[in-house]
Amino acid sequence: MKIFAVRIGNKYGPEYEDYLKRKLPEYDLNWIREPINSKIQLQWNKMHVMSLDLNEPICIIDIDILLVNDYKKLFEYPIERGEFVAMPGWWREDQSYVINGGFFKYYPKDCKYIYDKFMSDVDHWQSFYIKNGTTTGPVNGEQHFVEDSVKERLKLKTIPNSWVTRWCSNSNE
């Protein structure tokens, strides 16, 4: 299983990579450390993995994910062609969007259309969900873009709510 994580910029140090390497030694852990294009900001670089010519499921995770209990079940969660698996975002007041961008599992070949859509107008999509009030800036909205795009062609599945929680170190998060 290939797992991808984005660590661009200096918000998260190398200790986050070290943590994930310790927790996931049996997986093929891949890092996106540089923007795939000079226009693409931070977590939006996750879109790159959707362009890969891979015919096997992959996972993409946030760099700050904490893996506890029986966390390997997350990576082994079953998926079939035509499906997209995500972590639920149950804590949101606005339930018009149901996923969290911290974990995705999918077949890259099934998601190439999402990458192509994003790359067709990078500036538009990186600001779209901020401008329409769905989320706040300066850089956000990739999970909303992914969810809207997945629903165009794929079956969206979420892992069980009981498998995940949200921990914040600051009451403003």
Structure in words:
There is one protein chain. By secondary structure, the chain is of the alpha/beta class. Helix content is 26%, strand content 18%. A six-stranded mixed β-sheet has the order 2-1-3-5-4-6, with helices on one face. The protein is globular.
Quick structural summary:
The protein is of the alpha/beta class and 173 residues long.
Strand content: 15-25%
**CATH class call:** Alpha Beta
Number of helices: 5
Q: Note the main sheet.
A: 6 strands, mixed
Q: Could you please say which CATH topology applies here? A: Spore Coat Polysaccharide Biosynthesis Protein SpsA, Chain A
Helix content bin: 25-40%
Second rung of CATH, namely the architecture: Alpha-Beta Complex
Q: Tell me the domain tally.
A: 1
Structural class: alpha/beta
Quick one: how many beta strands?
6
List segments where confidence is low: pLDDT < 50 over at least 5 consecutive residues.
none
Average pLDDT taken over every residue: 93
Strand line-up across the major sheet: 2-1-3-5-4-6
> How widely separated are the two ends?
31 Å
**Global Rg:** 15 Å
General form? globular
Write the element-wise H/E pattern from the N-terminal end onward.
Answer: EHEEHEEHHHE
- What is the fourth-level CATH superfamily? Spore Coat Polysaccharide Biosynthesis Protein SpsA, Chain A
